Amino acid sequence: MSGMIEKFQRMMARGAKTGRRASDIDPAALLPRAPRKIDLRAARKMVAGKSVLVTGAGGTIGSELCRQIVSFDPAHLTLVDNAEFALYQIDLELKEAGHGGVIASDLTDVCRKEHLNRVFDRAMPDVVLHAAAFKHVPIVEENRCAGAMTNVLGAKTVFDAAIEHEADSVVFISTDKAVNPTSFMGATKRIAELYAQALDVAQNETRFVTVRFGNVLGSTGSVVPLFRRQIENGGPVTVTHPEIIRYFMTTREAVQLVLLAASLDVAEETIVTHDGRVFVLDMGDPVKILDFAKRMIEAYGLNPGKDIEIKFTGLRPGEKLFEEIFLDSDALIKTGAEGVLLASPAMIDLPLLNPRLSDVIEAAQSGEQGVLDEAVHHLVPEFVAHKDAARAPNQSNR
Fold first, then answer.
1. DSSP conformation class of 325
2. Most CB atoms closer than 10 Å: which of 8, 15, 189, 278?
3. Type and span of the H or E element at 281
4. CB count, 10 Å around CB of 302?
């Protein structure tokens, strides 16, 4: 034991000689491109003087949405989350920044229709941003009924409440894992996308926009805090597979692009479209996780493989080697806004979708995982339960 401690002390001393500490390391600097400079005037126009509601407000994306939205002078901002401490943190942060007069925090589960409707009754939001979700692939893979409850029923409850309360627009935060999903989490997010698309086409009052993107640096459960902790503990740094790659973006840039995509109709001052729009954020080239791990170790002034071991642990259930942001069949359209593309995924009309959606929700509520898997597969045929996650990528998506 004393030998291990001495080794770690030597490594940390070596890191100290470089002048690098954990707090000095900016993971964004390890990415192959710099964040974009984004014009957010249209986003400001979309929320200024409006009542805005954000679900999942205590999460990585939700909290950053709240920080940026509150700077655009909304009349009111409602923060919704079912995690007390996460909600407390963003509530306190915004109040300390001087925004206490316009925010309200509601500790509410988006699956509880009666509770959520009371929140909507109070807030009467013009703009709803739905970021609440269970997102960790291996956890949702092992807890499918709970995943479907939050990611499918929760989304449905929020979307239905927005229509009932005549919100102007709903922005749904989706994921690249909804494309050709091998994970149950990705399949549930695709179902929520389908419902948002169907609702958008079926009525002309509330506009629904879906925005897909990949991983954000530093989010809860992401590789950055994991690698940082492993390096500071002396290793090993764990990578699931030597060839695994992911798309990465800073949280700030991702949220700015979400707001930009959501406000494109506002920017163009056109008649609001109801065509089930799904926007895809251009996240640049994918990053090899192994290379990112090596760069992060080097940022501490240490040598990968010598000072810090890198260990391969194998793909986790539902995990892909390569994420896909769009399908080959998608006709991607440039929007005129740098970093935002418009996809054209398949849609299901609401009358056909509703009974299948009910099957998913009923199976999740009953806890019948086998029935749930079948119901999800019926809606998202690409998803097959327990299928090998190591799918080869389409060359055009690399």
1. S
2. 189
3. strand 278-281
4. 21
**177 belongs to the catalytic site:** yes
Please check whether residue 173 is in contact with residue 129, taking contact to mean a CB–CB distance below 8 angstroms: yes
Alpha-carbon span 256 to 37, nearest angstrom:
9
Task: Tell me how far apart the alpha carbons of residues 210 and 280 are, in angstroms, rounded to a whole number.
Answer: 9
Q: Note whether 51 and 70 are within 8 A (CB).
A: no
Question: How many C-beta neighbours within 10 Å does residue 342 have?
Answer: 18
DSSP bridge pairs for 278: 210, 343
Question: Regarding predicted confidence, which is higher, 317 or 19?
Answer: 317
Residue 2 neighbours by CB distance under 10 Å = 6
CA-CA distance, 284 to 300, in Å (whole number)? 26
The answer to which of 155-159, 181-185, 250-254, 307-311 has the lowest mean pLDDT is: 250-254
Q: Which domains does the chain have, with CATH numbers?
A: 41-215+262-284+327-397 (3.40.50.720)
Write down the H helix ranges in 143-250: 144-148, 155-164, 184-202, 223-232
Q: Which residues pair with 287 in a beta bridge?
A: 246
Of 92-96, 165-169, 243-247, 316-320, the one with minimum mean pLDDT is 316-320
CA 239, chain centre distance (Å) = 21
Closest CA to 252 of 278, 219, 222: 219
In this prediction the pTM is 0.84
Q: Which of 50, 135, 156, 177 is catalytic?
A: 177
Q: State the average pLDDT over residues 211-239.
A: 83
The whole-angstrom distance between residue 286's C-alpha and the CA centroid of its chain comes to 17
- Which of 48, 50, 49, 115 has the alpha carbon at shortest distance from 82? 115
Alpha carbons 82 and 114: distance in angstroms, whole number: 15
CA distances (Å), 15 to each of 28, 99, 118, 164, 297, in order? 20, 40, 53, 57, 10
Residue whose C-alpha is closest to residue 367's, from 201, 146, 157, 163: 146
Each residue's pLDDT tens digit, 62-111: 999 999 999 999 999 999 999 999 999 999 999 999 999 999 999 999 99
3-state SS class at 312: strand
Task: Kindly indicate the confidence band of residue 213, based on its pLDDT and cuts at 50, 70 and 90.
Answer: confident
